[in-house]
Amino acid sequence: STSLPEYFVVPSSLADQDLKLYSYSFIGRRMPLWSWNHPNGSALVRMANIKDVLQQRRIDQRICNAITRSHPLRSDVYKSDLDKCLPNIQEIQAAHLKLKQLCVNEPFDETEEKWLSSLENTRWLEYIR
């Protein structure tokens, strides 16, 4: 994938040939990417959607098993579909544009209450929270 870094961390129990094979199943060939690690061994892993719904469960299970085997305490994987609970990039860009317009174009002789409600309507603070 051209959108992944040249080097990235993967569970040691996944063989190179498995990674190559699985990469074709992910949208944009974006393999699971280890993003963050906690001292207790927990990790945050980002993963693109799997294109083939029929293969999704099998590939997902193999990757989650590899991640579990790599955890020092063998803790189970907790998965969360962030597409359903986070704004997409277009929504974030639109909120940023509204914030910018509010800060640059809005006259400050308006009441503070109106400006604060306009700020809230941009959704910028909600997104960065």
Condensed summary:
InterPro entries: Myotubularin, Myotubularin-like_Pase_dom, Prot-tyrosine_phosphatase-like. With 129 residues, the protein is mainly α.
Describe the model:
It is a single chain. The protein is mostly helical and 129 residues long. It folds into two domains: 16-80, no CATH class; 86-128. The chain contains five helices and two strands; from the N terminus they run H-E-E-H-H-H-H. It has helices at 16-23, 53-70, 89-105, 112-122, 124-128, and strands at 33-37, 43-46. Helix 3 (89-105) runs antiparallel to helix 4.
Q: State the shape.
A: elongated
Q: What's the alpha carbon Rg, rounded to whole Å?
A: 21 Å
Q: Main β-sheet: number of strands, strand sense, barrel status?
A: 2 strands, antiparallel
Give helix and strand order, one letter per element, not per position.
HEEHHHH
Helix content: 40-55%
Q: Which sequence of strands runs across the widest sheet?
A: 1-2
Structural class: mainly alpha
